[in-house]
Description:
- The complex is a heterodimer.
- Chain A is mainly α.
- Chain A has one domain (about 20-105).
- Chain A has helices at about 25-40, 45-55, 60-65, 65-85, 90-105.
- Chain B is of the alpha/beta class.
- Chain B has ten helices and four strands.
- In chain B, strands 1-4 form a two-stranded parallel ribbon. In chain B, strands 2-3 form a two-stranded parallel ribbon.
- The radius of gyration of chain B is 19 Å and the shape is globular.
- The interface between A and B is large, with 68 and 60 residues.
- Chain A: InterPro entries: CN_hydtase_beta-like_N, CN_hydtase_beta_C, Elect_transpt_acc-like_dom_sf, Nitrile_Hydratase_acc_put.
- Chain A: This is Nitrile hydratase beta subunit-like N-terminal domain-containing protein.
- Chain A: It comes from Kineosporia mesophila.
Amino acid sequence: MTVTLDLSALDVPRSNGELVFDAPWQGRIFGLVVSLCESGLFAWDEFKAHLIREIGTADEEVNCDPAVYYRQFAAAFAAMMTERGQLDAFEFDARTLIEQENLAHDDHEGHDHEH
Amino acid sequence: MDWLSMKDVAARINALESLMVEKGLAEHAAVDAVVASFENDMGPLNGARVVVRAWTDPAYQAWLLSDATAAIADMGFTGLQTEHLVAVENTDDVHNVVVCTLCSCYPWTLLGIPPAWFKYPQYRARVVKEPRSVLGEFGVVLGPDVQIKVWDSSAEIRYLVIPQRPAGTDGMSAEELITLVTRNSMVGTDLLTSPQAA
């Protein structure tokens, strides 16, 4: 479960000044997939096959929206875990309702969008 | 489930994470660590350090070109999409450019998260068919004699382009040189220019 990312205390700018993730959920899904891959749950190629499928089935114009990429990333992960029998659709829907409530309670700023 | 149009994507992602943690598959701290490392530690500066070492140390340059994975591991850069790294060198005669035609494979450890354009279908499709004109749109204008090599990272291999060292930089320190190396130059969509004379 070790994350081999100890790159010492380099003072590195964020991707030459660009924000890495546009919204917190983008970082969470990316971090979840990468950490599970590093823990050995699946090989990156297995995930990549699902990601290629998600990107391949989307419209060309849709693919141009950077925010779409992490949705495709999430779709690929959910599809892979469902295929592996490690994600149940009913359980997923039920948990999403709980998390929606958690987010509504957390959000005192009145943000009504995710960007 | 339509992920592209769903409004509650943040709740969906939180549900995925909490379910994975409950099943004992994931740990919140491990997710935190990946996010923090990408936001703070990984980025083009790592790649720039490798490039500058190659510019200033011929033995290292030879090692990088023959076994890039081992050569970058020597600088502490391992794992995360750089397990099978190949370094390709730009010269007066050859210009290298990298693409992932199928998705967005990219050497994260050295360059961070890929820029949006790297994921665009136009770039992924066009740079293979008409690299010279795509490079022109990035402002990279190459002479007709310069051969362009396009490297597709959709397979296991990731690529790092070693840009040409700009002229007039002989007296510069490594730390000064690092500031000249741009992210795009290490993907092949930028040429480095000499620092402006004062």
